[in-house]
Amino acid sequence: MPGNGDDSGAVSYHTLTPVLGATFRLTQDCAVSADQAGLNFGLAAARSDNFELGIKAKLDERMQASVAAFHIATANELAVLANAGGRTVYQNAGATRRDGIEASVKGDWKNGIGMVLAYSWLRAVYAQPFCSGACTPATMVAAGNRLPGVPNQTLYGELSWRHAASGFSAALEGRYSGRMLVDDLNSDAASGYVLTSLRAGFERSVGGWTLKSYARINNLADRCYAGSVIVNESNRRFFEPAPGRSWPASALAMPDKGACAIE
């Protein structure tokens, strides 16, 4: 058209971005020494004896269950001696013991409703006393103290529904995590918390393509809680806040060969 000519065309870009890397392993086991001035070559390797006994059962055509008990005895446990300025110092803390139970039930029915329930309980303790730093009555860790940074129990539950004809699915999730101790002296702990989340998804084949999409809302109640702890933090800044409410989503299109995703 007059005054509106053909402005189409093409342009291409190319470049070379070389990357060179090198790694060198000083020793098989290497960590910062207690004075933070070099490598702690005195660390001994931790060794564990593991025992587990479990059973799985099919309750009916639509339900399955499992339960397992375990015991772990560790010698020369690697433990955090100190955390300061972003640098972690390790030491051998003697013997530890972990005893626990894990159980789960899963159901999937013809009407599209499904459920999952999983529970775990853990007792992780130091089996012999040791000094957390210079040996004084204040730094002596007693036998029987719990290992920090590990929740004593967790519970997960899920109730889901799937519409097979459309490929739509949705689920309500709930998760409980027990308290976490923050140091070897067991002087403080992060409180337990309960979280709920909601997810929905879609999957369907159209013209030789499989279309998948999902969206979820994590932490529906926007709870404030400590998701992790910095074990033996020297300034007693142990607690790390977890994210509040969040909304991740993704979409995926898969042809017969290859895939392209938007997230």
From TrEMBL:
Query: What superkingdom heads the lineage?
Result: Bacteria
Q: Which Pfam families match?
A: TonB_dep_Rec_b-barrel (PF00593)
Ranges for domain TonB-dependent receptor-like beta-barrel = 18-220
Q: Which InterPro entries match?
A: Beta-barrel_TonB (IPR000531), Beta-barrel_TonB_sf (IPR036942), TonB-dep_rcpt-like (IPR039426)
Where does the sequence pass through the membrane?
A: none
Q: Is Ubl conjugation a UniProt keyword of this protein?
A: no
**What is the name of the protein in this document?**
TonB-dependent receptor-like beta-barrel domain-containing protein
Record the organism.
Candidatus Nitrotoga arctica
